[in-house]
Design goal:
Residues 107-132 have low confidence and may be disordered. This protein has 132 residues and is α+β, with helices and mostly antiparallel strands. It contains eight helices and five strands.
Length: 132
């Protein structure tokens, strides 16, 4: 599963690509996978994998429009997006900066940005705090 790592004041937060993808589909209905790929910078093949998974879960619908395949969120998907938005706000992440951050870090992996640093240097929350 793809994800980006965002550092806030006191912690590092890993945001799965499906959070970003589902939010973008909800905000920009009736867009093709190609258009969504340009907006999110998630790889095209990964977007197709996400599209299939989210459709199987009933979170998005696929609409065929002549040659294009368009995506829209279902009612269930809209409820999940509301929860994702609330979670991002609770974590102190500015929703407007999320896609910009994704674009700026698209070629970095989480391992590349955290590798060779101690827990104190990366300021990662202990697992006990995450599970609560």
């Amino acid at each position: 599963m793809g994800a980006i790592k965002m550092k806030t004041d006191r912690k590092i937060i890993v945001i799965p690509d499906f959070f970003i993808f589902l939010r973008v589909v909800d905000i920009n209905p009736n867009k093709s996978v190609t258009e969504l790929q340009l907006m999110t910078t998630i790889t095209y093949s990964h977007l197709h994998q996400l599209k299939k998974t989210l459709k199987d879960m009933g979170l998005i619908e696929i609409i065929k429009d002549s040659v294009r395949t368009l995506l829209v969120t279902t009612e269930k998907g809209k409820k999940v997006v509301e929860k994702i938005n609330a979670l991002l706000i609770d974590l102190g992440i500015n929703e407007d900066d999320l896609l910009e951050y994704r674009r700026n870090t698209k070629h970095k992996s989480i391992r590349d940005t955290v590798e060779n640093k101690s827990i104190e240097e990366t300021d990662v929350l202990p697992i006990e705090q995450i599970e609560q």
